[in-house]
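Input record (one chain):
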Amino acid sequence: MTRRRRRLVLLICCMSLLIVSLDNTIVNVALPSLGHDLHAPISGLQWTVDAYTLTLASLLMLAGSTADRIGRRRTFQTGLVVFTAGSLLCSLAPSLGWLVAARVVQAVGGSMLNPVAMSIITNTFTDRRERAQAIGVWGGVTGVSMALGPVVGGLLTDTVNWRAIFWINVPIGLLALFLTWRFVPESKAPSARRLDPAGQLLVIVLLGTLTYGIIEGQAAGPVVSAVCFVVAAAALAALVVCELRRPEPLIDMRFFRSAPFSGAAVMAVSGFAGLGAFLFLNTLYLQSHRGLSALAAGLCTLPVAGITTIVGPLSGRLVGSRGPRLPSVVAGACLAVAGALLSQVTLTTPLPLLLGIYAIFGVGFGMLNPPITNTAVSGMPLAQAGVAAAVASTSRQVGQSLGVAIAGSMASSAAAYRVNALYGLIVLAVALLTTGRWARATAERTAARLAESPQVTLSQG
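The corresponding structure, as predicted from the sequence alone:
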């Protein structure tokens, strides 16, 4: 493949990441307008966000193994079709229920895009240096989507209406579909993992009942809420037992014997719970309480996006030169401080001070991502590194879903932001615990056991 065509493949994959990542941020800024038009309560707005992130979290690993089995380009194209169709359905939704259902369709398509695109990139860029550069460009798109999402969402909401935030995906999706058909070669794994339907079903039951119990707990009553939590706990226990017995599980539970891997999962859930809560609460505060327009509210989030884009590469260099502890500790401390400060914000808080707090949050979040991925795969054999990174990605989506669910169920935004400060403290404590000498020793022992008796056969990515 020529250098020009490899770059074109990278561009196509980045287009898919952009539209999927945009939907994590672009929808939040339109929530007040959307809620007004569809007469949606707070719980309805929570489901508008969580229906997307929960479905992504549930299906990411299944999509990756399916692509390895039937073909990455075929799976990628299917994902583009489903995601584009789901976006169109979202724009036409006549009620909240239809919108939530269409968001699920969107996420089913989205789950086939990002993990599969990473596999395509890995197999297209065989030179180590070129691959590192390509992955760097890929990672930078996340920062771009964080910056563009709220601003583009606010602009479209103010000038057209909230439905326009979904229209924008349609031409991009169709263009990416054509370019994929024309330029992306087909590839499969030499030895793909078997499907794990029992594990997949248990993951869906676990995440679905847990989130439903949090979001609908107050409205449904304590009995329904308790039943949801009991079912979620039973699904978790059954998942652990089921996955330990399978030769090729959806989630290899042996990974969690590595303290760095377990720590990365906890930090991903906690840090992204903070992000989900921040995005959800921030747009409601700025628009519903301070009276800003959707565009103005989107512009207010630029400090978070801009600083995240700058700090992310710096964090990556720190991880490479000094290890993951320093950036992880800085991330936890900044997230905790930002949460504590945001819990004191009122309607009269000066806007410059508010933007300064947002900047602190941006430093924390920007520092967090590189050490999560690095720590997740730290010491893992090459064959297991792909699925270890996939579990970290799934943990991010789970965290964001739970963050929105918990924030919306709190009695006040101040209480929700105090919980955000707690998320930061968890990141800080886990970073200190799982990045030392003892933690590295557990990772080495786990890697040795995995190398002796590999339970999972994986392709790159």
